[in-house]
Design brief:
The complex is a heterodimer of chains A (274) and B (231). Chain A has 274 residues and is mainly alpha-helical. Chain A contains nine helices and no strands. The longest helix of chain B is centred in the C-terminal third of the chain and has 14 residues. Classes of the chains: A mainly alpha (274), B alpha/beta (231).
């Protein structure tokens, strides 16, 4: 059922995100013309047009990034807490499947947004010489890595990349879940649901920061602090990097899990559709 | 085995009691009218049966199971407001229902859409309010469910559409299933009902078969409703 939920989630979100990606790529072609000639000509018309095209490109980048966030929040709000909630929350699927479908699809759109923005920047800067230089640079870098690569760095490098990708995914999920939790709690109120949601978002942000700050203060000079110092003195630099990454990932998992529990509990027990 | 059973069911919203100590059961093969004035607790009861609300106390079961993922697969629910995704076309909506419900009869749904001249490729957003309600009813009644919970299916539509909706319900429900129709428009639904449950201010005040009301009290359900709920 999760697969089916995701299929329909992609269908619902793709109709917004895909045209936006297309617009961004089209504006990047316009910006490319602008950078490669229009801004350097004597024609006032072409100069103005060039500036407008670059502005359109910048606005399109901002628009795509903002919309990926807006779509993430709006889909949860409209699909589960507004009128559509009557259909969605009576499907033979669990609340967990609903949340995971939205989390996974949002994560895919965030990742695609980054890829498309990078692609658009490459299109904007497209120049045969430049592309050859970048390709040459990458080729040299790759050859250099292959020459100096030992099993130690190959394994650890791959592990760090995997840890970084896991951190990005977990961080992205935790951020989405904070919005979901605020919306779920806010919409359990009988009135002013959106105002309550905004209030709960900032309240939860404050509480989490307060708890984190308190935890850091409590751990300072504690037995745990000395344990960590003892470890870092005796382990290699690379092991410290792994330890740091895993600690941050675990922190994000706990941060996200708190919001996940809040979201599921409020959707199961305190759902209050109008 | 009762399709829908409530035992001492109570639901409170803060200090407001929407349902209090409600007990009744509905057997398969019956079309039951859940009748009561506005604000009597009909929608709350239907939401509880769909797991959209949690009881404060008491118990509600569907085929002996508490409302949840399993009961959603056997209950076909028509909410009182249009809640199908408006951005979809009618065809996409049928795809959606087919994906999630094993008992969805796509051919029946397509036949009803064609009968009403509803374009399958048109977005639901572009349809009139009445047409949207018809589409929602079509997908609800195209399921071979064990329990149909229809919340105000004829509220807010013209008399001709009311007749169509009622004939759609009668012509398409699974005869082994129970149908619960919540409404305050008694005269229109009376002809299709086997049984009625009168609900007022969160209490069940009467559960009886329509034949019993006619034979024993010598009046129509509409007349009895007006007598019981006289202001």
């Amino acid at each position: 059922m999760l697969r089916k939920l995701m299929k329909h989630e992609f269908r619902a979100t793709g109709r917004i995100m895909l045209p936006l990606f297309l617009i961004l790529l089209v504006t990047s072609v316009g910006a490319n013309f602008s950078v490669r000639g229009m801004l350097d000509t004597d024609s006032k018309f072409l100069n103005v047009l060039g500036v407008l095209l670059v502005m359109a490109f910048v606005i399109a980048i901002i628009g795509v990034c903002v919309m990926s966030m807006v779509v993430m929040v709006q889909r949860f709000y409209k699909n589960l807490l507004q009128d559509e909630g009557y259909v969605m929350m009576t499907l033979p699927v669990s609340v967990h499947q609903h949340i995971w479908s939205k989390l996974l699809v949002s994560a895919v759109w965030f990742a695609l947004t980054i890829v498309v923005v990078c692609l658009a920047c490459l299109v904007m800067a497209f120049d045969v010489d430049l592309v050859q230089q970048i390709a040459g640079g990458f080729r040299e870098l790759f050859q250099e890595i292959c020459r100096n690569l030992s099993a130690y760095y190959a394994i650890n490098g791959t592990a760090v990349i995997v840890e970084f990708l896991v951190l990005c995914f977990v961080g992205c999920c935790a951020m989405c879940l904070q919005f979901y939790a605020a919306l779920s709690i806010g919409h359990s109120h009988p009135n002013h649901k959106m105002a309550w949601s905004v209030l709960w978002f900032f309240l939860m942000q404050f509480i989490m920061q307060f708890l984190f700050g308190t935890l850091v203060a409590l751990l300072d000079e504690s037995w745990f602090h000395h344990l960590l110092l003892g470890w870092t003195d005796n382990i290699s630099g690379m092991a410290s990097v792994h330890l740091g990454m895993i600690t941050v990932i675990l922190g994000e998992v706990i941060y996200g899990a708190i919001f996940y529990i809040l979201t599921t509990w409020f959707l199961k027990k305190r759902l209050n559709l109008e | 085995m009762a399709v829908l059973e409530c035992k001492n069911l109570t639901k409170q919203y803060g200090h407001v009691t929407a349902l209090e100590d409600v007990s009744f059961s509905i057997e398969p093969g019956r079309i039951v009218g859940l009748l009561g004035p506005n604000g009597s607790g009909k929608t709350t009861l239907i939401k509880l049966a769909n797991g959209l609300l949690t009881p404060t106390s008491g118990e509600l079961t569907i085929c002996n199971a508490a409302p949840g993922k399993e009961t959603h697969a056997i209950v076909s629910y028509l909410p009182e407001r249009t809640s199908i995704p408006l951005w979809m076309t009618a065809t996409q909506l049928l795809d959606f229902y087919q994906d999630f419900y094993k008992d969805f009869r796509r051919d029946a749904a397509e036949e009803m859409l064609a009968h009403l001249n509803i374009p399958a490729k048109q977005r639901i957003k572009q349809m009139s309010k009445g047409t949207r309600e018809k589409v929602q009813l079509i997908v609800t009644m195209s399921r071979a469910a064990q329990l149909y919970l229809l919340d105000e299916p004829i509220g807010g539509v013209d008399p001709a559409t009311r007749d169509y909706i009622l004939s759609t319900i009668i012509g398409n429900y699974n005869p082994e299933a129970a149908v619960v129709i919540s409404t305050h428009l008694i005269a229109d639904v009376e002809k299709v009902l086997d049984e009625v449950i009168f609900i007022n201010q969160g209490h069940v005040v009467l559960q009886s078969s329509v034949d019993e009301i006619r034979e024993e009290k010598g009046m129509s359900v509409d007349a009895l409703f007006r007598e019981v709920f006289k202001c």
